[in-house]
Amino acid sequence: MRKILLRLVIFLALCLAAAGLFLHVRREREEAYAVAGLSDRFVTKKEVWCRNGKNKIYGLLLIAGEDAEWPAYSAAKAQAGAVGADMPETPVFQAEDGRIPLIIFSHALGGDLQNGFMFAETMLPPGCAFYCFDFCGGSRDKNRSGGKKEDMSVLTEAGDLEAVIREARTWDFVDPDRIVLMGVSQGGAVTALTGCRMQEETDGMILFSPGLNVTDITHEAFPDISEIPESYKILDGFYKVGRAYGTDVWDIDIYKELSGYKRKVLLFHGSRDRLVDVSYSRRAAEVIPDCEYHESPKAGHSIDPEDFRKNAAYTARFLWELWGNQQ
Fold first, then answer.
1. Could you tell me the pTM of the whole model?
2. Which CATH fold would you assign to the domain 40-323?
3. What residues have CB less than 8 Å from 233, skipping those under 6 apart?
4. Which of 7, 185, 280, 294 has the smallest set of CB atoms within 10 Å of its CB?
5. What is the pLDDT of residue 37?
6. CA torsion through residues 106, 107, 110, 113, sign
């Protein structure tokens, strides 16, 4: 009997060890997939988990080397006019105590943290940090965070971003007074809403074609909040959402929120955007007290390479004015 029990214990121990090895290999593969394609300008590329209530949030922390090239800076210096005229040849962003600024990136509806890679590669200054993550239930395909798609809304994503901000402010290498929020499309709307509600914890916002029309399109689809079904599809069937997606934004007045924002905002939008009409960002630029607005006459909702270089130049100057020459 003892021999049988001993064999059973050994068998269970081997099973647990094999399971642990499998999970370790799986995590390594997922991390390798997540960082695939990133350049050598980043001296740090690692998984960092956060938590929003019962949901775990999967994210990647990127830190650019102090001597890394800064494509946005080069674009600013090369662009005609005074975009980069007053920027020094060797910008310094690290504070005397060694802590560094951080950009927190919010992806578009159905996207994931990899949406942020091109922004980190081009716009992140040397020696600074960039954190991108999967919203809970917010990715169409591979979502590594917790949560369900049918529970996701702009407000739940705002809650995820708030949780990330609070966590990031505790990281010992981050300067908590120099955290800028960056968002694209629905991630831009989430960023705008969260930034307005966490002004003391953040240092500014950079918004690309923000989905500030989310409340209006909900009202257009459903005459009354009681008519919002348990689930429905948006964006011509692109994404299936739950009832909370509509009810959570029903009474939000994003422009009232933005009118009380006291930090600096850098805002970009394309004149030919068919998903979010440019009028939404034009109005935002009018109500935000300190807003630098750039409109691309030939761009739609996505960013073409030429516009991206121009936007990168403006972003370099914006970040320099906020963070530059700390020593």
1. 0.89
2. Rossmann fold (3.40.50)
3. 239, 240, 241
4. 7
5. 76
6. negative
